[in-house]
Amino acid sequence: MNAIAAQHARVLSGMRPTGRLHLGHYHGVLKNWVELQHEYQCFFFVADWHALTTHYDDPSDIPQNTWDMVIDWLAAGVNPKEATLFVQSRVPEHAELHLLLSMITPLGWLERVPTYKDQQEKLKEKDLSTFGFLGYPLLQSADILVYRAGLVPVGEDQVVHVELTREVARRFNHIYGREPDFEQKAEQAIRKMGKKNARLFNNYRKAYQEKGDDEALAAARALLEVQQNIGVADRDRLFGYLEGGGMVILPEPQPLLTRAPRMPGLDGQKMSKSYGNTISLAASPQEVEKQLRTMPTDPARVRRNDPGDPKNCPVWQFHEVYSDERMQEWVQQGCLSAGIGCVECKQPIIEAVLNELKPIQERVREYEEQPDLVRNILNEGCEAAREIARETMDEVRHAMSLDY
Ligand code: TRP
Ligand code: SF4
Q1: Which of 15, 199, 318, 396 measures 20 to 30 Å from 372, CA to CA?
Q2: Separation of alpha carbons 256 and 99, rounded Å
Q3: Under a CB-based contact definition with an 8 Å cutoff, are residues 74 and 367 in contact?
């Protein structure tokens, strides 16, 4: 597949191996992955090298965390027949591209990424003034670009990394997409499409470049995608030529923000391991019950007869995720009028969470009983990922005069 056509079809996302996942991951990320896998060619991977940038001093947990996390993905419904699941360090092409991109990435671009200083502040007890940590977002760029992914599902905090990726790709194409005889080659490629298509392409190109006609741009792209007579390199040339640039070797990806409702934690803040307010996907029914029974409610309801206000209560946020309109109405009325007690109000949430976790935990058990199956899924995923990554690297090496 050529760069642009592949890009339209591909989704890529990664997670650092933090071990067992929680309900925040499930609602915020995994349900979204499960939907995307039906629509796109999806690549989901364990970012174990990224984990090393902050845990270089004790990497011993990473393998178990990787294993637990992949099993949680599978149990949540990520389907290895639809999506490619793999481990970053098993696809060394990521590292090669990271190195090559590092040659053209200005230090200032990395120093200015806000997560760099933020994380150093947040993880003060660690020495994060390392080369690897500074390069964290560039490694992420390599992760994305090595598959020429078009869409990258990420949370808000990661959008800046996708932005950096776009800038790095643009710079790469600008420097290496300009062959000395680019225009000649592009004109030659146009002729290879045949008279009629060549004329069409030229008209579209003119309409786009002279009048900014976006429909013409889309039509020209569609035309290129169905051409049988031109090879991958020619097509990449023409995609660039169309827009007035050089070859598009590494297309610019877009972030895909998840529109899932915010999953509240047990204290009403966003559910996150660093706040210690999570419900683990592996939590036993007893644990779930205990966690929800002891979670705080509106502080105004000291006694059963004191009315409360769902606005000030984290339990209400759970009702927003789990309850239908009727139930929500019952909570509102019952709370404001002190008609229901908090224990009563929590009961449907406890049931909803238990119902949600039950099938996931059953599937976790099934996968845990079949370690060979999980190993095979990852082995096959790594091989499939490498195949695509190798194609990109062939072109990247060629563009950088590294094909001996
Ligand atoms: N940095 C991401 C996170 O912390 C994980 C990640 C690594 C990633 N490489 C990626 C996400 C590539 C999307 C695409 O969540
Ligand atoms: Fe919260 Fe429900 Fe109690 Fe109201 S009744 S304070 S919404 S737990």
Answers
A1: 15
A2: 26
A3: yes
Give the Cα separation of 112 and 108 in Å (integer).
6
CA distance 216 to 338: 63
Give the distance (Å) from ligand 1 centre to CA of residue 13: 6
Residue ranges and CATH numbers for the domains of the chain are: 6-177+255-261+371-399 (3.40.50.620), 182-242 (no CATH), 285-368 (1.10.240.10)
pTM: 0.89
pLDDT digits over 88-118, tens only?
Answer: 999 999 999 999 999 999 999 999 999 999 9
Nearest of 5, 7, 71 to residue 254 by alpha carbon: 7
CA-nearest residue for atom 3, ligand 2, is: 342
Task: Give residue for tokens 């094909």.
Answer: 403
pLDDT, tens digit (0-9, with 9 covering 90-100), for 378-392: 999 999 999 999 999
CB of 295 closer than 6 angstroms to any ligand 2 atom: no
